[in-house]
Amino acid sequence: MIKFYTKVLLATSALALFGVAAQAQVVKVDGSSTVYPVTEAVAEEFQKANKGLKVTVGVSGTGGGFKKFCRGETDISNASRPISTSEMADCNKTGVEYFELPVAFDALTVVINPKNTWLKQATVAELKKMWEPAAQGKVMRWNQVNPTWPDQPMKLFGAGADSGTFDYFTEAIVGKSKSSRGDFTASEDDNVLVQGVAGDVNAIGYFGYAYYAENTNKLKALPIVEKEGKAAVAPSPEAVIAGTYQPLARPIFIYINVKSLAKPEVKKFVDFYMSQGAKMAKEVKYVPLPAAIYLSNIKHIAENKKGTIFGGKNEVGISIEELVKREAKL
Predict the structure, then answer these.
(1) Residue 215, SS3?
(2) Tens of pLDDT along 116-149?
(3) Rounded Cα distance, 122 and 151, in Å
(4) 109 by DSSP, 3-state: which?
(5) Predicted model pTM
């Protein structure tokens, strides 16, 4: 009987040790719902090619992801905007150092219901009138934004407060990050926003281009007029590459915990991401970056070039060309 219990104890200990070993082979990613489709696509291919290694990809929004990242809970943080000064300070407090790796460009897309027949385009000024804090409880109908639009209730759907898309959209449209009316349907889950706009003829919302591209049968993309006198430009990969889709074209990123790169599975995943990122970005309908960017990402890691090139600021209007120049100078 004693021998039997000894065997059971040894077997249990072995299983526990195996469980720890198995757990150590998990790459933990969290953050932006915008970046999620790219990282999830890369993760699926990586796991097919590397049996026994697992990548978990959560969606807490860019801000929520950075909270976990700066506490050391994740290896990689998906981000649809650069890390902020307050997040940099949080990471500094806990000793979390990081590499900032741009992985694609997004055309942040304003969408309406396909049955909406009166809205052909919108100016940045009109979008501001819809979304600025002063609109709360007051600008509730379409004709209050533009008198040529119908006297119908306006239903707004947008990113939640922990979303990098919320930060970027408010800065690009309203002029200040996080400056927004609060009386709208908000979610960090872009699929909730897709369903909301698809279900109401009076709805308007915004999210990453990939979610629009996956739902073109349910949604209509709204061409944007950046400034008076300029032509309306619809979101598309071609417009992003040409630099004409402004001010809603933006780079998207992954941030790597420096200590996590000491784990072989994380290093292997990051290398795989940089080799397959362009292909996967295109597959999920984002704009791939030039090959030089993915190569420079690997080079920056090899040369230990940590930190961010954005200085904690969320810059509006940066082009792919400008991003390439900045990455080359890092």
Answers:
(1) coil
(2) 999 999 999 999 999 999 999 999 999 999 999 9
(3) 17
(4) strand
(5) 0.88
